[in-house]
Design goal:
- The complex is a heterodimer of chains A (321) and B (324).
- Chain A is of the alpha/beta class and 321 residues long.
- Chain A has one domain: Thiamin diphosphate (ThDP)-binding fold, Pyr/PP domains (Rossmann fold, 3-Layer(aba) Sandwich).
- Chain A contains twelve helices and eight strands.
- Chain A is globular.
- Chain B is α/β, with parallel strands linked by helices.
- A seven-stranded mixed sheet of chain B has the order 3-2-4-5-7-6-12, sandwiched between helices.
- The longest helix of chain B has 15 residues.
- Chain B is globular.
- Classes of the chains: A alpha/beta (321), B alpha/beta (324).
- Chains A and B meet through helix 5 and helix 6 of A and helix 3, helix 4 and helix 5 of B.
């Protein structure tokens, strides 16, 4: 899909299905976490699905993607196998990384999703490196980061170098308003992360991150810009995580009315409403979308929980290639 | 065979690595900077200019870029310059590169070489003298090369580039002008993890890498004058470590001095000494001696440097204690 102009109703339904699948996956992850089947630091992006789906849709098969610590949606949207993802989160040997990485270290090289990371901003320079390696092949690299990452040194070093070397990279900022537990007003001097692009001469746009079609339109232009050899761009997506920073975070640092306001802007609800107004979706069809997603996720859970844990020998081997 | 400087041999190794694989790229102008022989280093720019990028002084950024490039098809050699500068890039060197292969269970490899020049150089002071090999040894997933001769640096840089793993490659600052024989008629390949016995002996083993090899050889010469036969074993790479070669030598001599220009606590000498104590205890006829840097930052002035430097004389003194 190269431009939002060509989007058909069927396309929109497909985009909706993908958002619903991500939501169903992450809601089940929360459930499994509380049952003890998934452990550790797990960050869900419930409420941010529109960005994930729009970014993945704007890329071609050969393009690369780098994620963050909150990347389930990024990977699912990119086409990663949810069975292997769920198994990875459950720490099983049939997971993408045989259970060695878990939620924060997903790698699905088969779909060019090169890595999540446990370090805020950690993948930004990596994405530039991949862009450098494939600049002449006409490939594009998209890298996610949040508003918190925009305060790191690596972010600013990367903006300078990406602009200097005209690297084909799209910097996708998921600005969800909080760097872990700190609101943006307390962690940075700019109002919009995209403002950081001005001194580096990087074209940037700030869009409504909960409006899938608006993100897709901005991303499509950004990807085209990179593919044409015109260098990096930033797409800042204003969004919100409806849950805490990690599963179990009581999120006492934000007000109930703020969460309620953003719940009104839920990207899945918005696209559903739009499709209903276009008479492309009715209540039954919406239920079917949800049911089908739940069924796929249940299959993934069965696959995951049926997996073995890695043996001690296997775990200590293969530190080097 | 031709006599050449360590610096020239290094350049030859890099030129050969570039010639044999077009995915090898150089990041950083530092190679041709300090002490570089313009005639040799000039060839790099002439022959492979299109594969050299000169990043800004942004270690975190460009080391991360090299890692990303390595994850997706290139084999970068990154010239970080002084070893202490690599700490600016620690998040990428220690927290992204070494985990890539292991954490993805082989979905990706990370064939990057982080090249740095390190060690007590003569008034380098607090932030230009640190040898970081022991710190990186505590990071599983990194290979570490610490060559001590022109032939070794030429062979090992090629091995590091060919390796699919991230490699820390450390040249001691004082090695660059040192001369040694290099056989240009052969490939000069040296596999990682193979030690070299630089001098044979029977009374005491001196384990040393990098600049310490030369101090160990000097010490061995002096010990020979005193009737003590010292064997000098140079592991050449710390990861992988040729434990067998070290233990073989200790089994022969029964006495060992481990000499290294890193701090004594949790340093290179400590790890090698611990390994010998654990796996070669039955061979030992005397306690293991470590000759290393006291646990202080490296001070500025030459006289102060001399105080902390593990010299040949200190190796001799350590050997005398266990050989008497």
């Amino acid at each position: 899909m190269s431009s939002t102009m060509d989007i058909t109703t069927e396309d929109k339904l497909d985009l909706l299905r993908r958002m619903v699948l991500i939501r169903a996956f992450e809601e089940r992850v929360i459930d499994l976490y509380h049952r003890g089947d998934i452990a550790g630091l797990v960050h869900v992006g419930i409420g941010q699905e529109a960005v994930a789906v729009a970014v993945a849709t704007s890329l071609l098969e050969g393009d690369y993607l780098y994620g963050t610590h909150r990347s389930h949606g990024h990977f699912i949207a990119r086409g990663a196998d949810i069975n292997k993802m769920m198994a990875e989160l459950a720490g099983r040997a049939n997971g993408y990384c045989e259970g060695l990485g878990g939620s924060m270290h997903l790698v699905a090289a088969e779909v060019k999703a090169m890595g999540a990371t446990g370090i805020v901003g950690g993948t930004i320079p990596l994405a530039l490196g991949t862009a450098l390696a494939h600049r002449d092949a006409g490939l594009v690299v998209a890298v996610y980061f949040g508003d918190g990452a925009a305060n790191t040194g690596g972010f600013h070093e990367s903006l300078n170098i990406a602009a200097l070397w005209k690297l084909p990279v799209v910097l996708v900022c998921e600005n969800n308003g909080y760097a872990e537990f700190t609101p943006m007003s307390e962690h940075t001097v700019v109002e919009r992360v995209s403002e950081h692009c001005k001194p580096y001469g990087i074209p940037a746009r700030t869009v409504d991150g909960n409006d899938l079609l608006e993100v897709l339109e901005a991303m499509s232009r950004a990807v085209e810009h990179a593919r044409n050899g015109e260098g990096p761009t930033m797409v800042e997506c204003l969004t919100y995580r409806l849950r805490g920073h990690y599963i179990g975070d009581p999120a006492q640092y934000r007000q109930a009315n703020e969460v309620a306001e953003w719940r009104e802007k839920d990207p899945i609800e918005r696209l559903t409403k739009q499709l209903k107004s276009e008479r492309a979706l009715d209540e039954d069809a919406a239920s079917t979308v949800k049911r089908e997603a739940d069924e796929r996720v249940e299959d993934a859970v069965r696959f995951a929980l049926g997996g073995e844990y890695l043996s001690m020998d296997a775990m200590t081997a293969r530190v080097f290639g | 065979m031709r006599e050449m400087t360590y610096s020239e041999a290094m350049a030859i190794g890099i030129l050969e690595a570039l010639a044999e694989d077009e995915t090898v790229v150089l990041m950083g102008a530092g190679f041709g900077g300090l002490h570089g022989d313009p005639a040799v280093w000039g060839q790099l720019r002439e022959k492979f200019g299109d594969r050299i990028t000169n990043p800004p002084i942004a270690e975190l950024g460009y080391c991360g870029i090299a890692v990303g490039a390595a994850l997706t098809g290139l084999r970068p050699i990154v010239a970080i310059g002084t070893g202490s500068f690599s700490f600016e890039a620690f998040p990428q060197i220690a927290n992204e590169a070494p985990q890539a292969y292991y954490g993805s269970r082989g979905q990706v490899t990370c064939p990057v070489v982080f090249h740095m020049r390190a060690g007590i150089r003569g008034a380098g002071a607090l932030q230009h003298s640190t040898a970081p090999q022991a710190m990186y040894w505590n990071t599983p997933g990194l290979e570490i090369c610490v060559p001590g001769s022109p032939a070794d640096v030429r062979g090992l840089i090629k091995a590091a580039v060919r390796s699919d793993n991230p490699t820390i490659f450390i040249d001691h600052e004082r090695l660059h002008p040192l001369m040694g024989e290099v056989d240009e008629t052969s490939s000069g390949d040296i596999p990682l993890g193979v030690a070299d016995v630089k001098r044979e002996g029977s009374d005491v083993t001196i384990v040393a890498t990098s600049i310490m090899v030369h101090r160990a050889l000097e010490a061995a010469e002096s010990l020979a004058d005193q009737g003590v036969s010292a064997e000098v074993v140079d592991p050449r790479t710390l990861v992988p470590l040729d434990k067998d070669a070290i233990l073989r030598s200790v089994a022969k001599t029964g006495r060992v001095v481990v000499a290294d220009e890193t701090q004594k606590s949790c340093g290179v000498a400590s790890e090698i000494a611990a390994t010998i104590a654990e796996e070669g205890f039955d061979s030992l006829r005397a306690p293991i001696k470590r000759v290393a840097i006291p646990n202080v930052p490296i001070p500025y002035h030459q006289s102060e440097e001399d105080y902390v430097t593990p010299t040949a004389q200190r190796i001799v003194e350590a050997a005398q204690v266990i050989c008497s």
